[in-house]
Amino acid sequence: MTAPSTFGLSSEARNLHWLLTNLVEEVPGLLSVAVVSSDGLLLLSSDPGRNAEARTGTEQHPTGPKGSAADLATIVSGIGSLTIGAAKLMEAGGVKQTMVAMDDGSLFVMSISDGSLLGVHGAPDCDMSVVAYHMALFVGRAGHVLTPELRSELRQSLEAKPTGSAQ
């Protein structure tokens, strides 16, 4: 992962970027990571250079935006909504974590705060317990700073990036 530029961001936004970078660098087998707001918008990701390309449709990869953080954000938002609905129907309280194990990878979704979610796409050989542990650390550290103001700042910083530039 290329370290995103945090020039011009608040200290809270820079701290959140640092936490995400730390998560990606410390946990082997992570393919993509996304922080998604309660309304399904991508706030922060492990592949910032591809986000603008995926949004504008100018991705230069022949397969399109498949596998990008924008796609991960969409999947995380959908799974988050589905599991919240299931928990309500089952009268089981709030959803803390969802894990989907697949033949060729894993998907983890964890609640952060105010409906925001952390989503991780892991490689087939990732250690699920290590991924879940580090996600919980991220959530514990990020949850109290992910205010409405910070979410707005993160959305604006993603929208302000020109196509193809690193964040």
Structural topology:
Layout: H1 11-26, E1 30-36, E2 42-45, H2 48-56, H3 69-89, E3 97-102, E4 105-111, E5 117-122, H4 128-142, H5 148-160
Antiparallel strand pairs: 1-2, 1-5, 3-4, 4-5
Helix pairs in contact: 1-4
Kindly describe this structure.
The chain is α+β, with helices and mostly antiparallel strands. It is 44% helix and 18% strand. The protein contains 5 helices and 5 strands. A 5-stranded antiparallel β-sheet has the order 2-1-5-4-3, sandwiched between helices.
How many beta strands in the DSSP annotation?
5
Count the DSSP helices: 5
- Write down the Rg: 15 Å
Oligomer: single chain
Terminal CA distance: 11 Å
3D shape = globular
Approximate helicity band? 40-55%
Mean pLDDT: 81
Brief characterization of the structure:
The chain is of the alpha+beta class.
